[in-house]
Amino acid sequence: MTRVVIFAEKPSQAKAYAEAFTIQEKTKTYIQLKQDETFPNGATITWGVGHLVELKEPHDYKKEWKKWKLEELPIVPDSFREKVAKGKWEQFQEVKRLFQQADVLVNAADVDREGSNIFYSILRLTGVKGKPVQRLWINSLEKDEVRKGFKQLQGNEKDLRLYDEAKARQISDWMVGINASRLFTLLLQKRGFGSYLTIGRVQSPTVYLIYQRHKEIENFRPEPFYQLEGLFQSGAGAYKGLADIKEKDKAKVEALMDKHGLKEKEDVTGVVHSVDKKTKYQKSPKLHSLSTLQSMANKRWKYPPSKVLKTMQSLYEKRLVSYPRTDCNYITESEFGYLVNHLDAYQNALNVSFTPASLKPNKRYVNSSKVQEHYAIIPTKTVPSEKKLSGLSREEQNLYYEILATTLAMFHKDYVYEETTIFTDVQELLFKTTGKREVRSGWKELFPKPSKSKQDQEPTLPDVKKGEEVGANVQIKESMTQPPKPYTEGQLINMMKTCGKLMDEQEDVEILKEVEGLGTEATRSSIIDTIKAQKYIEVKKNLVSITDKGIMLCEAIEGTLLSSPSMTAKWESYLKKIGSGEGSKQVFIQQTVQFMEKLIQETPGAIEHVHIKSTEQKKKWNEPIAKCPACATGSIVDRYKFYACSNYKQGCTVTFPKRLAGKTLTQNMIKTLCEKKRTRVLKGFKGKKPFSTALMLDEEYNIKFDFTKKKAE
User: In its keyword annotation, does this UniProt entry include Magnesium (predicted)?
Assistant: First the structure.
């Protein structure tokens, strides 16, 4: 009897897999499946809870590495090891027990390099060896796709290469984060900096992109420029036009007027020199990848990229859309086939009706050679009922309808418009006027009409004829050059993806183009969240600005590879080689060590120019927050990553976390807990759903949730 154990990344994923088969038993830590055609002896599904294991902290290797000291750098363990993440011991032990009992293991974590990393890191820590491993590789959680995927399990050769790629990335990011953060913080603290910097291979160049835009805006000096504008009156109506001149020097524009015998605001006669009408066809947009969806949703609804990813993950787990963490805009003929079969149902769900222009695949959307691990985000075969749609959140509805409309647009007619160009002759000086008229709405009828921006407000032009005389009035139009605008969060996603355009070295441009810029489709939104949390940037009314702390970080890393996307370009390029079997994890890690050693050598002399912004935080650092509730002689102080008693050297072990269930615990909350043993009801905790609760201190000075207070209130 072959015992099959399937590992899912999270409980919701395990539940989706289980529902594709017949469940025999459900427990807190696993689901037992009945025997069937796919699993003749049944199977057991277990799961992680986020990351069950994580890389050890520096102090787990050597106690001397706990304190931040320049002389201890670089911190490079002889070998990198994992440990069970805090609070996840019980689930890990259960996974270990099931792995030990298994004859065959199936890695059914997310189908990307991080999914490979999660599975093999856990497997390594369990100590289980020599068992065959197979890989589930699917793009949808629909029941028939899940069943099909389990019948066509893949070998684990590619999975192991992806694990090596992900582990090399994780270890190198750990080394850069640990060493560079300590290096820059300690050197700047010597010069009076009162806080700390966190530095990361991807987050730091991202902050630097925002800093560059900040400098462009700050250094911008508006300048006037002058054009010649003609106001024309025909029998069919009025219109405007511009002469082919744009000058900073007003005298040059005045000289052109003199040359043609024109005076400002004087009524003269013009003649329509030519009228050119062209019919133009616009194809529907490409299918969505995660970043195009994040960018669009931020522009239309101001959704932060992280909210888009979270919402799409929810729609994926509800089996309504395909795998969301994709960087691909194409599908294969297989997906196109099922979309054709469900066209009527999709139209009903979107409450539209049209006759498809074509049911043949078009290379603009359907191209198997462009699809690697994942295809574009499209609706699944599961078409929700009206009741199910109305039960979705507003964000889920908006994004589902967008995916539906973009997919249906592929089958719709082109958008057709007529572009008109009029040249008007005024005393042998030509003025150009352009306008646009919709001929057929085509695929655009599937989408909500956008609010009229200046760009869209092209005037409807009067129907004038060549040779027709019109009333003309010419004037000098003065305008000012405009500074670049701050990025929105959606534009920041695009900037991270296309930052190769800013590189000087053509080789780096090509690499960044190939690896799609900074971060991956799955990580960009979390990188933005990280630099927000670190107070390097602020987002107000959807506009991203850099803080004083962010400016200081950028001044400190300026000129190093940490400020340049080229480091990420070279890293990602080599990481891809590891994933394809052409590169070595060990070589990559060794190169990172060399990079850190060079940085440690060069940085002390390179940061003298940094302007230390504020030392206010230094005064607050280690200041008492409240009396220690345990020893009474010590005080609770901020210890950077947590709160602790100042008498820790005398043996007082009281500590409090900085974050609990996704919420930051402020100094005021800790003070209240120490003095009153209980807080008021607080909002913003995160579990399976957001929740509110009071906090209390138990007899051993651990923070616990107090839901009774909520009921009492």
Answer: yes
- Which among 282, 264, 195 is positioned nearest to 228, based on CA atoms? 264
Task: Give the alpha-carbon dihedral of 233, 239, 245, 251, to 10 degrees.
Answer: 50
| Cβ 617 vs Cβ 638: under 8 Å | no
Alpha-carbon distance 383 to 635, whole Å?
59
Tell me the C-alpha to C-alpha distance, in Å, between residue 180 and each of 23, 333, 358, 599, 601.
50, 48, 56, 8, 12
Those residues of the chain that have pLDDT short of 50 are: 454-455, 500, 503, 515, 615-619, 711-713
Query: What superfamily in CATH does domain 170-219+491-606 come from?
Result: Topoisomerase I, domain 2 (1.10.460.10)
SS3 content of the chain, % helix, strand, coil (to 5): 40, 20, 35
**Beta-bridge partners for 224:** 480
Residue percentage of the chain with pLDDT more than 70: 94
Q: What is the pTM of this model?
A: 0.79
* Cβ count near 215 (within 10 Å): 13
CB 679 within 8 A of CB 672: yes
Whole-angstrom Cα distance, residue 413 to residue 284? Answer: 8
Domain with CATH 1.10.460.10 in the chain: 170-219+491-606
For domain 290-409, which architecture applies? Answer: Orthogonal Bundle (1.10)
**DSSP 8-state symbol, 319:** T
Query: In sequence order, which residues have a C-beta less than 8 Å from that of residue 21 and are 6 or more positions away?
Result: 33, 34, 36, 38, 39, 43, 147
Q: Which residue has the tokens 């993806």?
A: 497
Tokens at 25, concatenated: 């038993």
Fold (CATH) for 224-283+415-480: Topoisomerase I; domain 3 (2.70.20)
DSSP 204-246: HHHHHHHHHHHHHHHH----EEEEEEEEEEETTEEEEEEEEEE
d(CA 72, CA 67): 9
C-alpha–C-alpha distance, residues 350 and 346, integer Å: 6
3-state class (DSSP) for residue 135 = strand
pLDDT of the residue at 610: 87
Give CATH for domain 4-52+88-155.
Answer: 3.40.50.140
pLDDT in tens, 414-460: 999 999 999 999 999 999 999 999 999 999 999 988 765 544 556 78
Helix (H, G, I), strand (E, B) or coil at 340: helix
Number of Cα atoms under 13 Å in the Cβ half of residue 570? 14
At 499 the pLDDT is 67
Cβ neighbours for 313, distance < 8 A, ≥ 6 positions apart:
324
